Amino acid sequence: MQLTAFEYKLLPTLASLASSVTLEGTYPLTSLKKGARNFSLDKGINYHLQLTNTGGAVLLSGTACASLRGECDRCLGSAELTITGEVQGYLVFATSQQDAANARLDDAEAEFTVVDKDGSVNLAPFIYAAIVYELPQMVLCDPACAGLCPVCGADLNLGPCGCSAPSVAGDHPFAVLKQLL
User: Which strand (E) or helix (H) includes residue 98?
Assistant: First the structure.
């Protein structure tokens, strides 16, 4: 998935030590993917960011919040989530073109992002990461979701299916475990 760039020019606004700026708005993302899961976002990602010059670098902090819709892992119905994540970043100003080139070689291990001499930085990956990192391992439409019948596939949230699903006491593969007690 290709993120739309959200370029922000740090210079000259954040050129002096302790200068700060607050950004608020909505990043216009309509879909999000994590592994095999796809989510849709009707209203994008709302963000509140604080950028502060710490002397040679800019500290990025804030929050991102999104309402997502995906598929329930138990019943395959629609599941709605509201996710709020913490946006964090450390943006270091490159002192020369060589510094910027060297930093890009180590991007995979870097704990900071190098900002070119023009002072522009793409904030989209920071906002996106704040939401993706907070996605749950299991997405449910309801914590009490009963899921699907393993035999006929009926949605058990609507009531019992009436098929001949094995019971735990009967011919269920785990019924043998009761004999251990």
Answer: helix 97-105
